[in-house]
Each structure stands twice: as C-alpha cells, then as structure tokens.
Amino acid sequence: MTQMALVIDLNVCVGCHACVTSCKEWNTSGEAGSLADLQPYDADPEGTFFNRVQTYEAGEFPATDTIHFPKSCLHCEDPPCVPVCPTGASYKREGDGLVLVDYDKCIGCNYCAWACPYGARELDPKRKEMTKCTLCADRINNEALPERDRKPACVLACPTSARLFGDIHDPDSEVSQAIRERGGYQLMPEWGTRPANHYLPRRKTEAHGCSAQSCSCGSASQPQAESLEGQLESGQVNLASVAAHV
C-alpha cells in the first residue's frame, strides 16, 4: 500500500515560516478553504493553520542553539482520529494513505481532536468544521499542474529543501532512502499510531575555526560530547556550525 508522507530535515530548517504561509495561502483558496483569520494584526491574533513551526532554545547563554520544529498532521498509518468520528467525516484514503476530513459530514464535535496525541487538528472558528493538513491532496494529483508542481505547497516553498515528500513504503523513494540512511524517526512512536511523517535528527558536529589560544568561546577547552543530547546540554552545538557542515 502506498503511504505518502513528509520527511523533515531538522538540520536545515531555519524557521522562516515559508511553509506556514504557503500552506495557508494554498489551502485558503483550495478545497480546504477558506481558513479563518480573526484579528490577524491585533495583540491576540487567532486563526486556523494546518502547519506550524515551534522554536526552542537549547544550551546556556552565550553558547545556545536554536531548534526549529515544524509540525502538522502526521498522517498516521493507524490514526486514532478516524474510529472516534461519529459521522465518518475523518477517514484514511486507501490510494495514498492520507488522513482527510469530509467537510460535508463534519459536525465539529472535536472527538478527533481529542483523540489525536499530536494536537494536529484545528476547529475552524468560523466554519465550525475540523481542519487539518491534507498534504495538498488537491494539488499532488492535479494533472493540470506540471509534474514538478505536484507536491505539497510547503515542500515547494521551503528555501532550504528541509521538507521531502514521497512514498515511505517505496524502498527506492527519496524519502525512504533519507529515513534509512540518516536515521529518520517518528514522533512519539510509543502511542502506536505509526506516524507516516518522519524527522531527520540533528547531526553531531565538531568545533572548527578556533583554537585554545585564540578562541574566547571556551568550546576548544571542553571535551567533545559523544551524543547530540550531550552537545546540546553543554552548549557545544550552535545553528551556524550545523548549517556550515550540511
């Protein structure tokens, strides 16, 4: 069975939100729209988004690392949101494994949102319908578009190619090779939902361009951490060094 999914490279995501804005633009004008925007420029903006980027700081000042973590529906192979839907509005499409919502059947009960352990669904405050990432289902199969454009809007918009799209069940696909060769992992696999989307972990880096005699950052005098977690904890990893060696 085909299972289309995203593979997101955390090494090269710079948190520019191009994926967020392109997703919003395409889906507002496509089959999923329109998506609500309430007070978008006020102190308390509110709206509906399929894709969000969460940003974290690791380490201790001044040797800190900024980590950008994009998150959307993971199109689980065993989605808990589907069986709880009382109207059958949430379903998993057989042809490509996408988890979708039939808006004509959705009654906005929120059962699917409560069942999703990833918080990937948002109730549109104007339409009172549950919305979520569709992996641009109305785009990837659109034969009116050039073949190179039959990808999710977020994938095409990413300036650093941090987002890959393809069939994870095809061992020869780009996404399968990336998962296999670079240790791609699922988000919270302990829930047993078998998320289709994967993340590529941050690579270990080594200090370059400084010496114990001339460097004032102090990293040259510190022992190299054996794991990424150790590097983050000791503040040895920084965004510039990661980007420089991708």
Fraction in beta strands: 15-25%
- The radius of gyration computed from the alpha-carbon positions, rounded to a whole number of angstroms, is 20 Å
Helix fraction bin? 10-25%
Q: Which ranges are low-confidence, i.e. pLDDT below 50, for 5 or more consecutive residues?
A: 206-226, 231-246
Structural class: alpha+beta
3D shape:
globular
Biggest sheet: strands side by side, in what order?
10-1-11
Number of strands: 11
Enumerate how many helices there are, as a single number. Answer: 7
Write down the overall mean pLDDT. 85
| Topology pattern, helix = H, strand = E | EHEEEEEEHEEHHEHEHH
Q: What is the CATH architecture assignment of the largest domain?
A: 2-Layer Sandwich
Whole-Å distance between the termini?
33 Å
When the domains are counted, the total is 2
Q: Main β-sheet, in a few words?
A: 3 strands, mixed
| CATH fold-type name of the largest domain | Alpha-Beta Plaits
Q: CATH class of the largest domain, please? A: Alpha Beta
Short description:
This protein is α+β, with helices and mostly antiparallel strands.
Which structural traits does this protein have?
246 residues; alpha+beta; Alpha-Beta Plaits; 2 domains; three-stranded mixed beta sheet; 7 helices; 20% strand
Give an overview in words.
With 246 residues, the chain is α+β, with helices and mostly antiparallel strands. The chain has 2 domains: 4-200, Alpha-Beta Plaits (2-Layer Sandwich); 204-246, no CATH class. It is built from 7 helices and 11 strands. The chain has helices at 18-29, 111-115, 137-140, 153-157, 174-182, 228-234, 239-244; strands spanning 4-9, 37-38, 46-47, 51-60, 63-72, 90-92, 99-101, 122-123, 130-131, 163-167, 198-200. The strands form 5 sheets. The protein has a 3-stranded mixed β-sheet with strand order 10-1-11, covered by helices on one side. The chain has a two-stranded antiparallel sheet with strand order 2-3. Strand 8 (122-123) and strand 9 form a beta hairpin. The longest helix is centred in the N-terminal third of the chain and has 12 residues, at 18-29. The two termini are 33 Å apart.
